[in-house]
């Protein structure tokens, strides 16, 4: 039995909130305007009350509304699959399992939170959301969620992606979203950058600034973020909760869990329900996998930093490479955010989870081997986890060990074929971000 | 319960061959060289013996080799899904179910036969296959199958698609296939066309000629076809066999079955196992759905015709629009082949199945409504069936009837976003092929 399907009755009806079980409390987010911890009222310009409560809550289990369950049933439960043909190609004896989130409407794990965020806005009378998107995964997810809940959606898409990935734009258009290349003339943040450089290609940090500025300035509009924040990580725990049930059914349990890590919601989503077990004494390791060219956890600093370029978001205690950080153009694998989920950062700082970075030659090598054996073209983001899981299995083999390895295949790569073309054409090089440059971009951290 | 998953033990281990149960025998294929029924030996230049046997067999059940089962387990069984949100958006009371074949590695039903064909070649010592592809679905499927069975694959891709759909090419490249724009300099057929018109965009009929010519001329290479032939339709019956089991589990049975129909393997695959029931007296209707701009069954003639432009394939008794027929450029929905599976043609001629054609405005209208409610972007080909099923449900509603409607969602549309863009940009028009033009293209039928 290589595929483990779950009955719909096993879709989790509660999210697991690890803030209830942390051995040490987390530092609060700080307002960029007052320099003090952000208040509930200050967050109301961007988010509906239930999401702000979830952001701050230490309640262990939070019920998932029935309407959110109804939409999630379109694609959940997602399968847990044993990658037997991949194991054979690697020549390893460890078992490699993957949880596949690419069966969702947007092709990734992102709709798990997009639907919940849209829902809480909707019941508060907000019928319009703004957001940013880089490669397009999150913009696609929010577009789908808004359409399913009959809301409007405006997506600020980093201009270089807008031009390079026309089919992501087409996808969002299919779900009636409005897609705006960023920097745009719609916001002060955008106009400011365009004045300095009319040819600017944009960045994720800037697109966030544009989306936040618009949401803050309009009563009918709120903002939605696809990763980083506590409530986003919370919503993604359905992934790990389902996976635990699936392992129960096959009488196995993972020794090591790998997940790619940009903002942290994918990693948190699959790993955190297992970390609950670890905190209760269970022997399991969770490893966040990031690009060598954007090594936030492995080479960044644990410090307060801004979430965006225009310094409009709360200042968060997290691993960061500095809010001005931009990975080099040669980097094709996504996961480009300068910061990291405060929850994931905290877990790493406390030594509860581990992290590693991988080079893109390995990402594409193992990603293609996975596609050729398992028949699923992975998103380059997800291929970070594939590479790390494969190398772990190879190491086990050398050491004569047989382990159970789990990774999250967070999405498919059907909209990322140009990155694979670049790899086949020999246009990608490995790039390790120089320590000196990181030190430099960390000089601009806020004084908190 | 809106999704019906099957345990892996229910993947069919035998194909159902309707030639065993036909009330009237089919007319044999004729050799274009001798003018007599094609012999086993004549087919050996292109196909391995087991496939030729299957092409001619009247044995009711044919065992599926374990190696083929092993690869199919990567994506089979596929889900049967009740489209409840789509029903609600349509405002109908009939139940609409769909069998979703888009979860396969190539994103369509095509790998069901690609793997079987590759396997039978492999065990006969053939390690290289050629084929043609139009939109890219079949070329993708054969590329995957060849890689899974460690064989080489050369795909002649209609040049206009080669240029318009770069990511289909990237996909095939990912599975180590060689993709050649057709017409090419590799074959007499290709060189002949290029001499007449160096700017030729190619056609499916010509790409078939190129692939057949190369396979016929090389001992190490065979040919594989993605639709039309009896053995291809046979391999696709796993779709309908699984679907019947799934209906059993939910104690329902479809009144009407819709499937889009180009060469006929998708329609035959889902419908034929139900037609077995119909021949035994069960009340079920199967309707082949084709484009109004390529109306093979609904406006073509039941006659012997060539399968390709260069007249290299056997002459088959089928519904045809004439082997020179080409749908207009304005047509964006695929299903462009001039002919039709002889089995499907025979069933239609005998009045056992029905057919209808649909306009592309309806295809895209209902296809988008389906995506927005069910969260799956359909291939435009598959959207033909969606449109027909939706219109049936609407008609039932008007007539006060509640039926069980089934359609086959043969593939996803992630590689077809440009067709949706054309629709949104208002570039698509409805086009009904003029009767006079069809009469004209039917003047060149062979004398058999």
TrEMBL record, chains A, B:
Reactions this protein catalyses: (1S,2R)-1-C-(indol-3-yl)glycerol 3-phosphate + L-serine = D-glyceraldehyde 3-phosphate + L-tryptophan + H2O
Presence of the UniProt keyword Transit peptide in the record: no
Coiled-coil boundaries: none
Keywords: Amino-acid biosynthesis, Aromatic amino acid biosynthesis, Lyase, Pyridoxal phosphate, Tryptophan biosynthesis
This enzyme's EC code(s): 4.2.1.20
Pathway the protein takes part in: Amino-acid biosynthesis; L-tryptophan biosynthesis; L-tryptophan from chorismate: step 5/5
GO MF terms, alphabetically ordered: L-serine hydro-lyase (adding indole, L-tryptophan-forming) activity; pyridoxal phosphate binding; tryptophan synthase activity
Residues bearing PTM N6-(pyridoxal phosphate)lysine: 110
Cofactor: pyridoxal 5'-phosphate
Family matches, as Gene3D superfamilies: 3.40.50.1100
HAMAP family to which the protein is assigned, alphabetical: Trp_synth_beta
General function of this protein: The beta subunit is responsible for the synthesis of L-tryptophan from indole and L-serine.
Name the record gives this protein: Tryptophan synthase beta chain
